[in-house]
Design brief:
Four copies of one chain form a homotetramer. In chain A, helix 2 packs across helix 3 and helix 9 packs antiparallel against helix 10. Chain A is built from ten helices and no strands. By secondary structure, chain A is mostly helical. Chain A is elongated and about 55 Å long. Chain A has two domains: about 50 residues, Arc Repressor Mutant, subunit A; about 150 residues, Tetracycline Repressor, domain 2. The interface between C and D is large, with 40 and 41 residues. The structure holds a DNA duplex.
DNA sequence: CATGAATGAGTCTTCATTCAT
DNA sequence: TATGAATGAAGACTCATTCAT
């Protein structure tokens, strides 16, 4: 079953089985890498992973669960990236790095990111089993903790207005998701690399200014 | 046919027919007013409008065209709202009003707004007939003109950094769309009205700060 | 109603109405002039005739009846053509003329001919009202009389084997219809005019030979 | 997939699957065995084959592909029948056998034959995938080779006029198809068996005479 | 009479999921 | 465990015919 990672694979068979799970996710991701990713079928994923369709269901109880695993994997990576940031710089610089790391990951893992965004839709979450709903809640809390501590430092230093966490984060989150939607909804091949870099630079600047500019 | 609005309905029959078109759109909108709106079928719309399925297709050549009409109607309303803003105030105040009007309309017409957002997806636009693609392009230009002139005034007055239109608008647009996604993806009934007002206030403040804070 | 021709149109209104019937048929025929003629809808016919769809049903009680009228019109023309043949020539020459006239008409009136062939299908005839079934029977008899008399002359002169009418006619009819199918099923624009003439010449020769060659 | 015949079914499952394909075709054919065969739906075929509708689409990618497979199967049988003819007899006798075999097969496999005729329609061929268009071209060539060699022998022996292949074959083909149309378009149950045999005898005689009678 | 809006049964096709082997 | 054949509920769209005005 999905997330067998929690158990220790011992035998060769079990190791193979565990590896298989990642292969399915990778296959899915390679197919999700375009704007019509929602049209991708379980058949196609199985074909791409070079396994039978039934096998997919041995690992994931539904297509939605595949989405969930991808989203969770993405959030883990994002958190891991945040952990790599040097927190001993000025807070505005830390936030700039947070934003840069985010954009970089979102663009490097577009398929992941697309799915993650989809997984926030209310109708999706409703369908989801409680187990996964909880996992998403956990992730949410981790983010809150991760970004929250940075913001608190900023508040203490007087760089960031003294506001509740949600007031501070909500604009950043909104801009971020909106920006990614805009990038995805444009045929990427049409935009030159330069334009994309510029886009990110401008957006990042705007985000930092927006964050700092909230009246205390 | 859709957008018969361009012709003047003279006879009773024509008036009825024109009204029917709006009834279909209204029926659709009432069904679209929840996060799983994409699951709504043409049959359901017809049932809701209390007409036959075939009749729907007398007015709209496809389900996509229904979406397009809704989106265009929404954009018209938004532009109309912008026209009502008093431009003789300080630019930052004008922008605040733009943002407030936008949020108000988006929240009053959530179904419209949802569809409008959907209609920006690359895969949707691709399927669309050239006629409608052009209409959307027109709308885009109207917005650019409308907001552009405000920003220019701001630049002249030194309130807004001297930057190309797209640099200035992109953050606002991203935040706006992201914010709406966040609102829709939360089961609205869970948020109290207060929370929503607060949400908008905070976001608006952030947006204005972000806009102003771009380095010239 | 269809075939109002049997009544004498007196008033202007009645004359207009009668003319309208032919206009509908002409509109239909102009649309039937291609291999996918079966896809043509009543809407399209009405549009082409520049009248309302309902009006079509004032003249013809069903789409099938339109087909029937076209087929009958065609058969009338064919019979009229046969009447113009000089019967004072050697019988084989008369038959050659019959065949030539037939091919000429079929090619000049391809849409008519297509419909006529369709109207021979058992499932079509079954759906047809008795009135029209009778009309088709009448036409059949007229043909039998027309060709029959030629063949009888030939038999008397010993040019054509002494065989029942149906034995003699069946091959000709089969070849004719098969040949027309072949012509229609080939994109006409692909065949040069020369090829078509050659085709007809060869087929005609074959038909005469086949007719004569039956053992008495 | 359709035409899995090219692969050797090894396992039981594969054998079952291959058999299923034939069962679908058989079910289709049993429903096609009447003049309104074009009205038969995929649902009906599935019901007749006692399988789900989806299963049909596991074997055939479209209804048209079902038609194509039936037509190809039929052509194969026809060619196989031709191969069984003893070519060491006088050419006119060989041709008579060819004609007889054809009529026999067409009458034994009326549903097949109906579909085959349909599959020659230009609008059908256009819709068809290149793969199947090629298969039909192949079949065409096989026929040309098969009949062509007989005719050449006849020309060498001076029994058949020295004419290009297409001049010789076109009349036969036309008569054949026309004759079959006539048979199908008559409610078969109305004709006694005797009449049909007679029909074939007469037509065959006519065809041979027509072929021989072309002027060199 | 002329009209064209309304109808809704009917068509093909898709796809997540199940289950026997 | 791995497989992939089977399923059948949907879904978008068409079109001959009717009927109120």
């Amino acid at each position: 079953m999905a997330n067998g990672r929690s158990m220790q694979p011992i035998t060769r068979k079990e190791r193979d089985f565990a590896r298989r799970e990642q292969e399915i996710l990778d296959a899915a991701l390679s197919l999700f890498n375009n704007p019509s990713w929602e049209q991708v079928t379980v058949d196609q994923i199985a074909k791409e992973a070079e396994i039978g369709k039934g096998t997919v269901y041995k690992h994931f109880s539904s297509k939605d669960e595949i989405y969930a695993c991808i989203a969770l994997e993405f959030h883990e990576r994002l958190l891991a990236n945040f952990k790599m940031i040097n927190h001993d710089q000025p807070v505005d610089q830390v936030m700039r790095e947070v934003i840069r790391h985010s954009f970089t990951l979102y663009l490097d893992c577009q398929a992941h990111a697309r799915v993650s965004l989809y997984c926030k839709r209310a109708d999706y979450v409703e369908r989801l089993s409680e187990v996964y709903q909880d996992k998403f809640d956990q992730v949410e809390k981790s983010f809150e903790a991760s970004i929250g501590s940075i913001l608190e430092t900023g508040i203490e230093q007087g760089v960031i207005p003294k506001r509740p966490y949600h007031h501070l984060i909500i604009g950043l989150e909104a801009t971020f998701e909106g920006a990614m939607s805009m990038i995805w909804n444009t045929d990427i091949s049409c935009r030159s690399q330069l334009e994309q870099d510029e886009f990110i630079t401008v957006i990042s600047e705007y985000m930092v200014a927006g964050l700092m500019g909230l009246r205390a």
